[in-house]
Amino acid sequence: MRHDVVILAAGQASRMGRCKALLPLSDAPGDHALSRLARLWAGAAACRVVTGFHAGAVEAACAALGLEAVRNPQPEAGMFSSVRTGLEAVLRSPTFASLDGVFLQPVDVPLVRPLTVISLGEAAASFPGAALIPTFAGAEGHPVFLPAALLPSILAADGEGGLRAVLAHLPLRHVPVADALMLRDMDSPKDYAALCELARGADSPSPAEAGEWLRLRGTPERGLRHARAVGAVAQALAQALARARQREGAAPLPDAALCLAAGLLHDICKGEAEHEAAGARLLARYGFPRLAAIVGAHRDMTPVAPASLTERELVFLADKHCRGGEWVSVAQRFDDKLALYAGDAAACAAIEGRKARALAMEAALAAALAPLAGAGEEADPARLARQALAPHARGPEEPSHERP
Questions:
Q1: Which portions of the sequence form the region Disordered (predicted)?
Q2: Which residue spans of the chain are classified as CATH 1.10.3210?
Q3: CATH code that applies to domain 207-392
Q4: What's the sign of the alpha-carbon dihedral 291, 293, 299, 305?
């Protein structure tokens, strides 16, 4: 799909008291709202920034980022005046005839993920001619996609009630996405502080986002129980390993939030052939490369030394301790499979190999957690897994008949 982007950055930011477009989102040099959005929209045919208040500073940043600036002559007239300014610039473009549509992106919603952009693009192909608004759990967010055919009608409107009021009279569809960050703006210093905190973990879905993604993909209840169980165990193992390494002054510390997200989403493509690889491809495509690396490796893995354990190994082990939503020892998990495939010598040999590697990995984790035992803390991976699953306890579940 060929599209332009209009970033709306003309506001006065009276409640914020500072130019939102240039507010830093981390300590990294040049990491501000506008630069984040420039990276997000790097694949657009053209990306224009509507300026107004703070025009000098924003336009200088646009020049540094290679973005075209279009100044709103009357920014005090409200956001629809900026929408009009941006869309008129798109219509004047010599490439307008080749465009499928335009994304409208407020600069104060800078943490929109590729997941949302890709989902809107897919929906645009399925519903040509309709404006699209992304939603998370029913709440509307940004950006809005406008098909090229609707631009004249939008520009002919008086803008009373803003863009959403204009769109209410045009073909419109809502597109559910598993991205709560496309709801988060920064209208106040409190909003901005919260956004900076969210920016640190933006490359990993929250539990609510992971749950919504699984729901949108139609994951059955059994799959949801297993996902929650693996996420809980992976998080607990990561937290324990972090405590052990802190006691020893060792690094790196595992990312418990990443382990939780990977555990929740490790079977996102369950039911597809080679579902681990399919899940990794899906996550990478939607902008989650760290998750993809973990999910793609969760079925089988070569053991590593205790000092080399990462989130990948922790999620791998967490999965081996969960049969459906209940706890199981690593040995029993594989013994169940051996019983299922007792008549298939080749399958049993493969299962025995996977069992040996998983037990070796668990031994490596036990060694890495040894410093906790000296402090009177639980240091046994199996018991930590069982404790993590206590809130998820249910009745026994049947062994899975997945490939050996």
A1: 380-404
A2: 207-392
A3: 1.10.3210
A4: negative
Q: Which residues contact 59 (CB under 8 A, 6 or more apart)?
A: 49, 51, 69, 71
> If we measure between CA atoms, which residue out of 365, 366, 273 comes closest to residue 314?
365
What dihedral do alpha carbons 148, 153, 154, 160 form, nearest 10°?
-170
95 vs 99: CA distance, rounded Å: 7
* CATH number attached to the domain at 3-200: 3.90.550.10
Tokens of residue 57, six digits:
């500073």
What pLDDT does 393 receive? 54
Nearest to 227 by CA among 256, 254, 241, 207: 207
Q: Which distant-in-sequence residues (6+ apart) come within 8 Å of 208 by Cβ?
A: 137, 180
Tokens of 35: 């630069």
What pLDDT band is residue 392 in, cutting at 50, 70 and 90?
Answer: low
312-363, pLDDT tens digit by residue?
Answer: 999 999 999 999 999 999 999 999 999 999 999 999 999 999 999 999 999 9
Cβ partners under 8 Å of residue 178, min gap 6? 115, 136, 205, 209, 210, 212, 213, 216
Alpha-carbon torsion, ordered 75, 180, 39, 21, to 10 deg: 30
Phi, then psi, of 390 in degrees rounded to 5: -55, -45
